[in-house]
Amino acid sequence: MKKIPVEISQINAKERINNFGEVVLGYTEKEAEEEALRCLQCKNPSCISGCPVGIDIKKFIFQITQKDYRGAYFTIRQKNNFPSICGRVCPAEYQCRKSCILTKKGLPFASDEAINIHFLERFIGDYGIKNNLEVSQNKGNRFSVSGIKVAVVGSGPAGLCCAGELAREGIKVVVFEGLHKLGGVLRYGIPAFRLPRDILDFEINYLEKLGVEFVLNCIIGKTKTLEELFKEGFSAVFLGLGAGTPSFLGIPGENLCNIYSANEFLTRLNLMSAYEFPQAHTPINVGRHMLVIGGGNTAMDAARAALRLQRINGLPLDTTIVYRRTEVEMPARRLEIEHARQEGIKFEFLVKPTAFLGDEAGKVKKMVALRCKLGEPDASGRPRPIEIEGSDFQIDADVVIVAIGLKANRILTDVTPDLKIDKYGDVMVDKQTQETSIKNVFAGGDIVGGEGTVIEAMGMAKRAAQAIVERFLKQ
Ligand SMILES: Cc1cc2nc3c(=O)[nH]c(=O)nc-3n(C[C@H](O)[C@H](O)[C@H](O)COP(=O)(O)OP(=O)(O)OC[C@H]3O[C@@H](n4cnc5c(N)ncnc54)[C@H](O)[C@@H]3O)c2cc1C
Ligand code: SF4
């Protein structure tokens, strides 16, 4: 008899939109075991090639069936430093699940039949946290012997992962973070209803226990330069700067009041606790008709956060996502789209904004847009949205959030001319070692190759850490 995938429990939509608490509850032991037992334990497990860091998925799932949760934790940790985080945010339907033999072939993302690898990973990651399982240093603290000290710039998943890998090798690591809190997008971008902050704090505390030092409010490129870091005695530097500069539509009226970039909107909310204003210092404007432009995870997060703010402020629930292609082409995780829809978010597909109109006070009032149809694939491989002439229409909008992508922040690269960048401003690296055009300066994450995923950022950070270890500890 064909076994049905085990559904994950979640808070129902009506209840969850009242607050920023976590939506997905995770598997119980019984559910995890049942789901693990669906795995065919394939001779050639195709799922592993779908994981950007190559977790031995088959093995950890088998260990779950044997109730060897501790073993499963260490199997995952061999490749992935943050299973509880990735189990919550990885777009598994485009990665491991899509490669699972049980998925139906030819789909743009995994079918429901694929093993819920990400939920199993989360179950094990959370088991590790609950039971305080920690991965010890590999070879004791060799810093006292080697004197090797590495600076990590940025504390997003790339920076944290690189720091952890190096610290476990006994290398002294100092992480320099420009903001006043650690975690990068995991802290200021992804809302707590998807990634509770105690999970992130656990991982950061663990790094502190390994001896990693954190320096906050320190922007490399402004507070100090790369050159100064080397003068301070660092042997190597890892750049995990992320992609923190928002893209805009470049259409008339975009400078009207109450049009936010998703980055600003989410940072006000997640980093500055704007939902607690006036108890918190930072305000956020909430409207009766909130529009979010874009189709990625950032758009889903911004829309779901906006809807919660409407509810908290006693406003009618009216938040709409506007996307110029259809749902199939949306790059957001399928689960987030489903959650957004369950929560009452509306979708306007095949719509391209052309202008914003404001009132006499300079506040946005309406968005003007054109309907589109899909054409031939463009450079991204997705069908190009083609505007339909004469289809223009207007939508009410008193708050607009633009979530159409992020690019490299150039603070450091602008003052470091020897650091080679490409036409997008991304740092260029050797793909094997992640080393940049400056010797002993490595880079990974979104600053290399643009907006990616948490696990991809970690994959690059691991490669860089390995190259640093090879260069300095294995000579
Ligand atoms: C809203 C949102 C939702 C997302 N959802 C998902 C998801 O569900 N799943 C997924 O896999 N991916 C998701 N992503 C993408 C993912 O978060 C990124 O790919 C990942 O965070 C990149 O990691 P990073 O370490 O390279 O950069 P970041 O996380 O951006 O961290 C970079 C850090 O470097 C700091 N910094 C930058 N310049 C300097 C400097 N000069 N000096 C000191 N510090 C500096 C920044 O302040 C920041 O803390 C999402 C992204 C966003 C914005
Ligand atoms: S491909 Fe799917 S069924 Fe096969 S081992 Fe991997 S998770 Fe299990």
Low-pLDDT stretches: none
The end-to-end span amounts to 57 Å
Total strands: the figure is: 16
What amount of the residues lies in strands? 15-25%
SSE class: alpha/beta
Please give a structural write-up.
The chain is α/β, with parallel strands linked by helices. It folds into three domains: 13-130, Alpha-helical ferredoxin (Fumarate Reductase Iron-sulfur Protein, Chain B, domain 2, Orthogonal Bundle); 143-244 and 408-473, FAD/NAD(P)-binding domain; 246-405, FAD/NAD(P)-binding domain (3-Layer(bba) Sandwich), CATH 3.50.50.60. It is built from 17 helices and 16 strands. It has helices at 13-16, 29-37, 57-65, 69-77, 83-89, 96-99, 117-130, 143-146, 157-168, 185-188, 197-209, 226-231, 262-270, 297-312, 334-343, 411-414, 454-473; strands spanning 149-153, 172-176, 213-215, 236-239, 245-246, 259-261, 290-293, 319-322, 346-348, 351-358, 364-377, 383-387, 393-396, 399-402, 406-407, 441-443. It has a five-stranded parallel β-sheet with strand order 3-2-1-4-16. Helix 3 crosses helix 7 and helix 13 packs across helix 14. Flavin-adenine dinucleotide binds at residues 89-91, 153-159, 176-179, 184-185, 189-190, 219-221, 240-242, 244, 266, 297-298, 301, 333, 409, 411-412, 445-446, 452-455, 457. Iron/sulfur cluster (SF4) binds at residues 39-42, 45-47, 57-58, 61, 100-102, 115, 117.
